[in-house]
Write a structure and sequence with these properties.
With 292 residues, the protein is an alpha/beta fold. Helix content is 39%, strand content 21%.
Length: 292
Amino acid sequence: MHSLTHTKTFLVTLAVLFIYLLNITTTLANDIVISIRDDVYHDYQRFLNGRNVLDINDFSGKTIRRDVVDMIIAQQALTLGGFNHTFKYHPGKLNFRNTKMIQQGTLLISFDSYWLADANALAEHVYISAPVIRHGEYVAGIYTSPNNKAVLAINSLDDLKQFTAISTPKWRTDWRTLESLPIKQLISEDEWLSQARLTHIQWVDFMLMAFHSTPDKSFTLDKIHLVPVKGVGVVLNDSRHFVISKKHPLGQQAFIAINKGLTLLRKKQLITKAYTQAGFFIDKNNIKIINK
């Protein structure tokens, strides 16, 4: 009886090991599925226009933006670091589902970088890459409806007192930055697209957004059209990083590879070039940062 119990235990352990190895083999054999916000994916596809993502070294274009640069940099860094796997995208209205999937190990990596403050809150579950956007490099625009003339006249910190802003506390750095500003009211809305819609229809006065590559730095998505206050910016004092799941079978390999790749891209100055050409990095000599 004792021997039979040991045999059963051994067989169960063997079965579990077999299933685990089968999952790894499947992951290695097939494309790695990456969930991505649908609007970012569509701009990414339009920007690539059939080109191989690994060949991109010019980041100027109509649909380039910070999120799209993140996607390209992540893939190039992984490949340069020796991570030889391909990716298949599942676009959708993700909200914060990606974070749960990374914690569970069902998603390898987020190609949309995280604020370090948000990444550190997940440190038990994720590896945190070297910074792709370094501390102090993220200067956001104050985006509003082109019809909101009062917001467009903002020129100093004191001018913010009469206006409302929108963000989500789930983006710790954005939220804390807005909390530190002397605004009339800060409204919470988790879905980014809803934030943009509410700003567009002027239910909310403004939102902080990465500068865009369009000549006037404006942002347009379907019926949403937002423009930044000219010559004014808000610095978000944090760095941004890629997060990789510790529970995914390829997590550690991807983490080592992306850090190697980011180091190589940084030496080539391609990261700075990419975000500058995308309109995200701006000349700080030509803008007034009102929250220094």
